[in-house]
Amino acid sequence: MVWQNYFIKKNFVPKITQSPSQNLELCVVIPCFNEPQLDLALESLAQCELPGCDVEVIVVVNHPENSEISIIDASLRALNLVERYNKGKGSKRIQYHAIKAFNLPRKHAGVGLARQIGMDEAAYRLLSVSGEGIIACFDADSQCIPNYLVELFRFWQMNPKAHANSIRFEHPLKGNEFPQTIYDGIAIYELHLRYYNQALRFINFPFAYHTVGSSMACSASAYVRFGGMNRHQAGEDFYFLQKIIPHGHFGEVNSTCVFPSPRPSNRVPFGTGRAMSKLVNQHEPITTYHLDSFLSLRPFFDRVDSLFNFTRSQTAEFLKSLPLPLSEFLVKTDATEALENVRRNSASVHTFRKRFFLWFDAFMMLKYMNYSAENYYGRVTVIPASIALLHLMGKIPYSDISVIELLSVSREIEKAEWVSKL
To answer: For a Cys staple, 249 with which of 83, 163, 174, 387, CB 3.0–4.6 Å?
Structure first.
């Protein structure tokens, strides 16, 4: 079978010795490195209603080589916890497995490699019994609502050709676990995530989706088809989904919800944990990109179909006419030649548009956003930027509004918009 080639090339050896159920169609993969609250994540999944298939929860207990004794002890406790959960709450319908991934090469050790180990295992088990199935990514400090498993299974029943999806997420905004400064900070950080996503949708960028590691899922066949998870120590979720999203068959599940932790962390160079750590420890404010950076792209994207009929010189003149800093960025990236290549390999406007956005993809978007920030606008505070965007979208009056109210509006916008685009 084609899927077997993926595992042959990787010299894959299964880590779980117990044979999978013949009715297994859903695996939840959890990377676990020095996680003191793994029990809350496991309990959250244990409280879920079971779907019309069997489920496995695969916890990849990992740490790098030469770890401190305290880290090794935490890994051993996690292994024991998963074993106890399987004995106490496992059944024929749901099983809890721990993969022992100790002493990983420090050069590669991290969340990307841990997810890869677990997702490879899940894909192998699913494909070996049914030829398909669902791999859901979760985190050891996340929780979910009780319909999580059911809604994931239902999504693929309704969309059997789906490659992957993002799942609605909401960070907790109050509680007793953290100081209020953490909850205040995560509200701003989540608002930044939604501002970025909604600004991309406003300018008609086709790949505007959240890529949050604790709230995404893919089919087992798509997982191997697109080369599996990477070993990035940060941003692994973004890199993974951006291999899939441009090829279509990507959807969104908003009928359930994952609650990622707002905790500060220095494990990775960027992302939620690092942003919260900088806020708390260095008093560094959470910032975002200037709205004008997004708006300058709209006349470019609005003329994509016209570009198909442009000559090379017309394309060059058009690119120069675009607003700064976009025109300057496109000249520096030799966009005229890139668009000529796109045109030469496109037999129709439809094909040209598809190839255009394979060139100006989510990675190119980030390059442009960083270029505009570094050379023109700087980074701006999130709340005024979000107010400006939501006002432009006609969602709020231009007046004083709290960050919680802004976030509530943004959440509701996406909840209403999150429909399958398969």
So the answer is: 163
User: In the prediction, which pLDDT does 1 show?
Assistant: 65
Chain-centre distance of CA 346, in angstroms?
30
The position carrying tokens 């024991």 is 80
Tell me the domain boundaries of the chain: 2-283, 292-377
Tell me which residue of 356, 366, 338 sits closest to 239, measured CA to CA. 366
Give the integer Cα–Cα distance in Å for 411 and 420.
17
Q: Report the side by side order of strands in the sheet with 54-64.
A: 94-104, 54-64, 24-32, 134-137, 216-219, 164-169, 250-259, 143-144
Q: Is the dihedral of CA 322, 324, 327, 333 positive or negative?
A: negative
**What 8-state DSSP symbol labels residue 132?**
-
Q: Which of 25, 38, 95, 33 is nearest to 60 (CA)?
A: 33
| Rounded distance between C-alpha atoms, residue 275 and residue 292, angstroms | 23
- Please list the alpha-helical segments (H only) found in 159-271: 180-202, 220-225, 236-244
Q: Which tokens hold the place of 37?
A: 């609250």
At residue 422, the pLDDT reads 39
Strand spans (E) along 37-114: 54-64, 94-104
Tell which CATH architecture fits domain 2-283: Alpha-Beta Complex (3.90)
- Check residue 394 and give left, alpha or beta (phi > 0: left; psi -120 to 50: alpha): left
Where the chain has pLDDT below 70, the residues are 1, 265-271, 273, 276-277, 280, 282-283, 398, 418-422
Torsion of CA 224, 225, 229, 234, to 10 degrees: -170
- Backbone phi, psi, residue 14, to 5°: -60, 140
3-class DSSP state of 382: helix
Region label for 111, one of left (φ > 0), alpha (ψ between -120 and 50) or beta (otherwise): alpha
In 3D space, the residue among 116, 128, 147, 157 whose CA is nearest the CA of residue 29 turns out to be: 116
- Say which DSSP state 110 is in: S
Looking at this protein, which amino acid is placed at residue 193?
L
Alpha helix ranges (H) inside 138-179 = 148-158
Q: Residue with structure tokens 């990507």?
A: 250
- Looking at residue 211, its pLDDT comes to 94
pLDDT at site 269? 63
Pairing label, strands 24-32, 216-219: unpaired
